[in-house]
Design brief:
Layout (H helix, E strand, L loop, with lengths): L3 H24 L5 E7 L7 E5 L2 E4 L4 E6 L7 E5 L5 E2 L16 E6 L4 E7 L3 E10 L51 E8 L5 E8 L7 E8 L1 H4 L6 E8 L5 E8 L2 H10 L1 E11 L6 E10 L1
Parallel strand pairs: 1-4, 3-9
Antiparallel strand pairs: 1-2, 4-7, 5-8, 6-7, 8-9, 10-11, 11-14, 12-13, 12-15, 15-16
């Protein structure tokens, strides 16, 4: 009997200390991170994704967005109850001017709802979703970028459906007699043996008839000593597409040619987009090195 009271006091002290520590630990939980990743080396060239492509948090919580690579990425909000409040280090806007390399910052989501976003450089091919409301937990997604957020909510509208495993990068949601069709296939890219020209070829599918092909060649600002990242050094547009094989050549601008002559070689990103007459565009990007 003489030992029971001291033991009870000791247990109470230990429990009290643990309860005091738990709120402190909860307050130090880090925000979920959505990171830009670049997947290269496959038969379809370099692909770009947000990892994870979907996350779920509680209202008022934050998401950490990061691009730890030398490929330029940014965030364009395309749907939701409003734009979240992002730190200045996060490039937010429209177009390649609102992008950068090796950045990191938080965005805070005050209102509940489903927020959809694209990369400002890679468009619908690199999309993501933040669901605010519900359990407030991060959703783990598969390598194809598909997910069911724990907080529920509708998916973003107007975004291209990611290609299925093994599908060409030109796959996109275009209704047709046979279901989802690829807008283009058999994409090949290459630079001139000696010269600032990007050559390419692809096969336009019947689903893209009457659509538009846009080819952009982008170079990192470090290579051109520019304030913008990246810089468009070549652009080609073909309208009123016809089904079948299509070849194209995009000549680099004077600024790009000057950098290529000065450096001897120029690493670029070639972005190919096909917008059908009706339906969602298909976009893909590949890395390429031009040599003097």
């Amino acid at each position: 009997m003489t030992l029971r009271k001291p033991l009870l006091v000791l247990v109470a002290v230990l429990l009290g200390g643990a309860l005091g520590v738990m709120p402190a630990l909860a307050g130090t939980e880090s925000a979920p991170t959505v990171e830009a990743v670049n997947i290269g080396g496959g038969i379809y060239g370099e692909e770009h994704r947000w990892s994870p492509s979907s996350a779920s948090i509680a209202p008022g919580a934050s998401i950490t967005f990061a691009n730890n690579t030398t490929v330029a990425h940014g965030i364009e909000w395309i749907g939701g109850p409003g734009a979240p409040a992002c730190e200045p280090s996060v490039p937010v806007g429209k177009g390649i001017a609102a992008s950068g390399t090796e950045w990191k910052g938080d965005c805070t989501f005050a209102a509940a709802g489903t927020y959809s976003f694209y990369c400002t450089v890679h468009g619908p091919a690199m999309r993501g979703t933040i669901v605010v409301g519900g359990g407030g937990t991060t959703t783990t997604v598969t390598s194809t970028g598909t997910s069911t957020p724990t907080g529920g909510g509708a998916t973003s509208t107007g975004a291209a459906t990611p290609p299925a495993a093994g599908a060409p990068s030109g796959a996109s949601s275009v209704p047709g007699a046979g279901g989802t069709q690829a807008l283009f296939s058999a994409l090949h890219l290459g630079g001139s043996p000696h010269g600032p020209v990007v050559h390419g070829s692809l096969t336009v599918s019947p689903a893209s008839a009457g659509g538009t092909l846009t080819v952009q060649v982008l170079a990192a600002r470090a290579q051109l000593a520019s304030a913008h990242a990246p810089v468009v050094i070549a652009r080609l547009v073909r309208r009123s597409l016809r089904p079948g094989p299509l070849s194209f050549s995009a000549r680099v601008s004077a600024r790009g040619r000057s950098a290529l002559h000065r450096r001897g070689r120029l690493r670029v990103t070639v972005r190919i987009a096909i917008a059908p007459a009706q339906g969602t565009p298909a976009v893909t990007s590949r890395a390429l090195t031009l040599r003097r």
